TrEMBL record:
GO terms for molecular function: glutaminyl-peptide cyclotransferase activity. The keyword Transmembrane applies. Signal peptide: none annotated. It comes from Oryza meyeriana var. granulata. The chain crosses the membrane at residues 23-44. Keywords: Membrane, Transmembrane, Transmembrane helix. The keyword Transferase does not apply. This is Glutamine cyclotransferase. SUPFAM superfamilies: YVTN repeat-like/Quinoprotein amine dehydrogenase (SSF50969). InterPro entries: QCT, Quino_amine_DH_bsu.
Length: 321
């Protein structure tokens, strides 16, 4: 399938669900909407005729190389993805299969999924009180962390019934990845941890920064070509992080994906979350929570903002449910 141009104008922010329900005090609601619209002003660049869209179409200039690179994307292929999967961790497991961890209470699971059809091949349902989060695969073992708990699980990749638990010392369990030696972990802060896979002790932790500003809400992680790539919660951006020092060496702008889904009527989707890397075939996959699609994408370098103000390009998607 040829690359698809998914750049389209951003959807207008939708008020939260409770505002869409009939309410007695219409005047109060109107006032809240006015406040919300006013509050949405910082998001203005994302709307029609947005600067980011124009910016992302600009060819790379021959400006002096900065340490940060910026990327947009081309869609190579799209695959079905379970729209009820609240994707919290995903990775490529070889042979056109994915391993996925899903969240939400009473709906959390660990799954083996067929890439091409999106079909769940094997599923382990977690206890109802467990909210699944990051997942990674090391030596045939799947490591999974859980939201709001210091408890995690290790599964046999060939038989999810064989599992044991561990405890970790991160503040919370959000994302996991591995370089084949250590586990990289995120806990919703700007900290990127390195855990020993045997003892689960924290061996090292760095603070992820872009231009001296901390980058909080590090979420789903993937190890790609020596870097740790992190979804930044509630944004359409992936930070490419040097795990040595926590410096963001690149930003990937993916807002076109969520906008495309939204504009196709998928208004129940949640945020972008989920990066899987097929190292052998150099294939990059991304998806999101409750997204009906998983995309294979290729990155394309673009110029970054002149003033480097990535905050404007990676705003929080809090208006989107
Ligand atoms: C790859 O997956 C297919 C389909 O599930 C299966 O028939 C085949 O045995 C698998 N091959 C390997 C090497 O695991
Ligand atoms: C999976 O592991 C469980 C627990 O050890 C065992 O009872 C079961 O037979 C295994 N299933 C397969 C298909 O190997």
């Amino acid at each position: 399938m040829p690359p698809t141009n998914l750049f389209i104008s951003a959807p207008a922010p939708t008020p939260p669900l409770y505002l869409r329900r009939p309410i007695a005090t219409a005047a109060a609601a109107l006032l809240i909407v006015i406040i919300l619209v006013a509050a949405a002003n910082p998001y203005a660049p994302w709307h029609t005729n947005s600067t980011p869209t124009a910016l992302l179409h600009r060819p790379v200039s021959s400006a002096p190389a900065a340490r940060t690179s910026f990327y947009t994307f081309d869609v190579i292929r799209e695959y079905p993805h379970d729209p009820y999967a609240f994707t919290q961790g995903i990775l490529y497991g070889g042979n056109d299969t994915l391993f996925e961890s899903t969240g939400l209470y009473h709906r959390s699971s660990v799954r083996k999924v067929d890439l091409k059809t999106g079909k769940v091949l094997v599923q382990h349902e977690m206890e109802g009180r467990m909210f699944g989060e990051g997942l990674t695969l090391l030596n045939d073992k799947l490591f999974q962390v859980v939201w709001l708990k210091n408890e995690g699980f290790i599964y046999d990749r060939h038989n999810f019934s064989k599992h044991e638990s561990f405890t970790h010392k991160m503040r919370d369990g959000w994302g996991l990845a591995t370089d084949g030696k250590v586990l990289f972990g995120s806990d919703g802060t700007s900290r990127l941890y390195q855990l020993d896979p045997k003892s689960i002790q924290v061996m090292k932790a760095v603070t992820v920064k872009y231009q001296d500003n901390e980058v909080p809400y590090l979420n789903e992680l993937e190890y790609v070509n020596g870097e740790v790539w992190a979804n930044v919660w509630q944004t359409d951006c992936i930070a490419r992080v040097s795990h040595e020092d926590g410096i963001v060496v690149g930003w990937i702008f993916l807002h076109g994906l969520r906008q495309h889904l939204w504009n196709s009527g998928n208004t129940e989707i949640d945020v972008l979350n989920g990066i899987a890397w097929d190292e052998a075939n150099q294939r990059l996959f991304v998806t999101g929570k409750l997204w009906p699609k998983l995309y294979e994408i290729k990155l394309r370098p673009v110029d970054g903002p002149q003033d480097g103000s990535v905050e404007k390009l990676c705003p929080k998607a809090s208006f989107y449910r």
